[in-house]
Design brief:
Blueprint lengths: L1 E3 H13 L9 E7 L13 H7 L2 H7 L3 E7 L18 H20 L3 E6 L5 H11 L4 E5 L20 H5 L25 E6 L4 H9 L3 E4 H7 L1 H13 L6 E6 L21 H14 L2 E7 L9 H18 L20 H5 L3 E3 L1
Parallel strand pairs: 2-3, 2-4, 4-9, 5-6, 5-8, 6-7, 8-9
Antiparallel strand pairs: 1-10
This protein binds manganese (II) ion (MN).
Length: about 350
Amino acid sequence: MALRGSLARLLRAQPDAALRPRRGAHSVALVGAPLSRGQKRRGVDHGPATLRAAGLVERLAGLGCQVHDFGDLNFTQVPNDELYNNLILYPRSVGLASQMLADVVSRAVAAGHRCVTLGGDHSLALGSISGHTRQCPHLGVIWVDAHADINTPLTTQSGSLHGQPLSFLLRELQNKVPQLPGFSWLKPCLSASDIVYIGLRDVDPAEYYILKNFDIQYFSMRDIDRLGIQKVMERTFEQLMGRRQRPIHLSFDIDAFDPSLAPATGTPVLGGLTYREGMYITEEIHNTGMLSAVDMVEVNPLLGASQEAVKATAHLAVDVIATCFGQTREGAHIAFDELPTPSSPDESDSEEQVRI
Ligand SMILES: [Mn+2]
């Protein structure tokens, strides 16, 4: 087929102008972690498939990221995984799955990828944060969630481990946390000053005690109402990066959003983040240039009231991840060097022909 004039030039120019990855494009590893034993509802193990079906890989590739999809980890349930202390559910299964995930995240970060873990329930942060700290011992954690997820096995009411991961990771709490079967590999790797919470609005009494007594920085929904999301992010980075730059681990529970936006999740709480607050949080994290790993957890496609509700939740989660890797609300996602110029009348009348 022969094309003439400006169209041919535009087509020839396109690979350069439109498809070139943005400078400093990220290499992103995707790891599916279909962990569901940290809580009681069915379906959260379909989270990774739901996020992929919502176009996650294509969106990241469209931003110029090199995407390496490692597929889903194969978590088998450990047989005879009895309750610990007559209360804690599936300790061996959660422990083993987190151990596997820790190894994979550690290897992905060591290979130079930013590692995105697709949950699965929030107990997977035991693994993703443990693995990440093996490579980046001084990282800071931004935990975006309606809940604090810092009950100990001795304070939890539900027995579900997705409400407890931070108690195992925090050095200051180690004399308050019993050794669970399946957890012998786990070493506390965070200090209280390494964590900032955003979005809290359902905090248990023992969790509140921990936040206050160990001086953990948190911004509840009330704080966001009071300060505005811009001040909240300023103070977040002041806390984590005030003295020195450090890698960031973002652990994002989709239930941080208002249930009107993210209905397909196990423990929704009214009065959550708006879409704009969620995007601002992740835009600012991207702008630090220090984001090193992300968890996206608790998307449960069996809990939406309709297909639309599930789709809305999944697309929101994909927007969060894409924004972490450079999607902006201003546009200009990809470098664009030069606008095409209309041909002069002389040129378009010429006999120039190009074969493509
Ligand atoms: Mn959570």
